[in-house]
């Protein structure tokens, strides 16, 4: 009779990721935090992902390189193209008792087949709304096809985890799977908090003490809503109220964004305490992206005491309480975005009240509690497979 595991020490997890550490973003940083937590709980974890010569940061845990190729036009990202004999030998030697898939790429498809052949449970985590990407490249007609391909992939998995209830509901409506639970995101409160605000730093980049700073921080790619951001700022300018725009981040769309917003201040990429200082030194976050499944950016801004103007879309809807911690605006509604920004620019008491409420909300997001929810899901799936084999 097979004994069902009851603790993390019994877990042997093979984690497949399309980007674990070669480009820094919220999804791969969450995966690294998860692996670090699992290792501290006594689990064994092996990560399989593409690698590059100069990654953005050191990986947490053991990382096995997957064969990959650079995406045409977006060379900073790689597609894991499959599982070769070297990787299969490593998998066979590691002998995982569960497989975790975090990106629906060709290697993940092969990993799912490998796991199903061996009767291993498969958990997939959903980190972005891939099916929405084509609309930002004038290819919206591909969305139904991409959604159907994703559905076929996710239904071959035993369960999914999504970072927010709003995203989980979208996945249910799309019939991606019938076992969907929440793997939320946490925030490092020692890093992101209002005390990081630094007026001297603001002055050093040309921002006056009395100027209201509308901030944006993220990878600078079109799918983050850069066009909507720019159009709303144009409308705000027409209202003749004083404000400044601060953009933190880098990416392939930076030149486009700088040309579109010539009066904005661009810092380029910032990380660690430099990023936290920049965020806390903003006065309001404007983040109109609709591709987020959670919104790490939104939570980090809230932890710094900023009101947030965001799209009423997956991720933000689970974080922002409309007219309490910020504003949720219908995606693409330029006039409404501009009106919300105008209100915050001209009402400092409202900014402070909504910012304080957002900071209080951010206290609910503890990384250890959140990552234990994933460990509990692993254990549940492994136990279910063990019962079937018994």
TrEMBL record:
<dbReference type="GO" id="GO:0016757">
    <property type="term" value="F:glycosyltransferase activity"/>
</dbReference>
<dbReference type="Pfam" id="PF13692">
    <property type="entry name" value="Glyco_trans_1_4"/>
</dbReference>
<dbReference type="Pfam" id="PF13439">
    <property type="entry name" value="Glyco_transf_4"/>
</dbReference>
<protein>
    <submittedName>
        <fullName>Glycosyltransferase family 1 protein</fullName>
    </submittedName>
</protein>
<dbReference type="InterPro" id="IPR028098">
    <property type="entry name" value="Glyco_trans_4-like_N"/>
</dbReference>
<dbReference type="InterPro" id="IPR050194">
    <property type="entry name" value="Glycosyltransferase_grp1"/>
</dbReference>
<keyword id="KW-0808">Transferase</keyword>
<feature type="domain" description="Glycosyltransferase subfamily 4-like N-terminal">
    <location>
        <begin position="25"/>
        <end position="190"/>
    </location>
</feature>
